[in-house]
Amino acid sequence: MNKPDLNIAKNREEVKINYGNLDLDIKPVFKGKKYFLRTYGCQMNVHDSEEIKYYLEQLGFKYCDKLEDADIVVLNTCAIRENAKDKVFGYLGRCKHLKKAKKDLIICLCGCLMQQPSEIEEIAKNHKYVDIVVGTHNLRELPELITKCLGQQEIEVYSNSDQVWENVKYSRDSKISAWINIQLGCDKFCTYCIVPYTRGRERSRHIEEILKEVQELKKQGYMEITLLGQNVNAYGKDLNLGYDFATLLEETAKIGIPRVRFVTSHPWNFTDKMIDVIAKYPNIMPYVHLPIQSGSDVILKKMNRRYTVEEYKKLFDTIKEKVQNVSITTDIIVGFPNETEEDFQKTLDIVNYCKFDGAFTFIFSPRVGTAAALMEDKTSLEEKEERLQKLNKLVNEYSLESNKKYVDKVVKVLVTGSSDKGIDKVCGYTETMKLVNIIGSHDLIGKIVDVKITEAKSFSLDGEVVK
Ligand code: SAH
Ligand code: SF4
Ligand code: F3S
Q1: Ligand 2 center–CA 291 separation, angstroms
Q2: Quick check: 173 pLDDT over 50?
Q3: DSSP helix/strand/coil, 145
Q4: Which pTM does this prediction carry?
Q5: Domains and CATH numbers, the chain
């Protein structure tokens, strides 16, 4: 077993990145068997699950949606907050129970939680019924580990990676909208965040390879692609080949897929050139997810976010001014160690200033191995919960307010699937990433249609197709 080394921050600069073409020979030795897959975490994990699905299907497994029917269970875990971890261990309890009745069941854990030494130790000691543990850096070993699974626990995890694989295959969830990794890992080391430890150093894919993938997706008829990275605006910096995220975005837009998106943008290093490209191309969607995290400069500094509230506001205003009808969403953490009532008030102030289209809000969750987990924290959990409630009330008011502006307007919606609001309904997204439930038939799925908005709610819109 290779133990992850939580001191990876020190030796990042010295590692030279290797680029290689993946060429796996996977035999369908599990024909007739079924797999069950659960994904926790962010879009990156969702996209990794599409890679996992490809491997399982190549091995001969067919998808099933009930845990009880499965011959193999894969849990793709997340480590971002304690509740993500609790969910995984909760579900693992069900898997353990099932394995008592079904001795041949293969249980496999992968994803970010498996990059944490304490969790691996816990699995090795107290969860012996887990068959396979594989880390984020060596997901490609999964087919081999499954093929060779003999009922003993196999743990294969690497602490870091100097590798970027091309020619990775995916079994994508959607035929309409696709994820594309443009950058792996993260070098920002925000003091609260586990991602740099679980995903390794920041490494960009070469632009030609990304554009080749975009071309291929266009050929397959995809209507939308989302360029994925933990901070996409740092794209290319590690390569030093004379191109950056603005170049990539522009070249991607030129290929002509109807909708191009990107996530996540770090406010640090978001250049004017990037904003100009977003504004220039109608197929680059006017939507930016721009996490602020806190409205207090003291806390932002302690978080190592590399910008001040003033700088954020300036960037926010420039994006709003240059990109027509843009919508901007954010992430906010409350209860960072020793956050005072005054600091929190400043977070409310920035929300009042920006009036975000939406915000994901979290209570700070200490992660083992991060700097913030060691910081003194006198604020009680009750106080933090109260702050979260106050904040949620405010952000919901603003998202409702921004949604109300759509009522009676006609907007373009890419219909992505059936709606859970009724069998006579489908759903999709506006260019600005607002979810719309529409009365209409399934024939609309995969099309961009003009929709008149009839009602606004905090988290979605209702509408009808304009004939
Ligand atoms: N790379 C992205 C975000 C990745 S994690 C970025 O920098 O914007 C998604 C969100 O989870 C973060 O923006 C942050 O708000 C939240 N988060 C990360 N670590 C956290 C922690 N330890 N406790 C609470 N929230 C956290
Ligand atoms: Fe985490 Fe910060 Fe990197 Fe985002 S930029 S993944 S919050 S360390
Ligand atoms: Fe994503 Fe969770 Fe890992 S948010 S990068 S899956 S820790």
Answers
A1: 10
A2: yes
A3: helix
A4: 0.96
A5: 12-156 (3.40.50.12160), 171-404 (3.80.30.20), 410-465 (2.40.50.140)
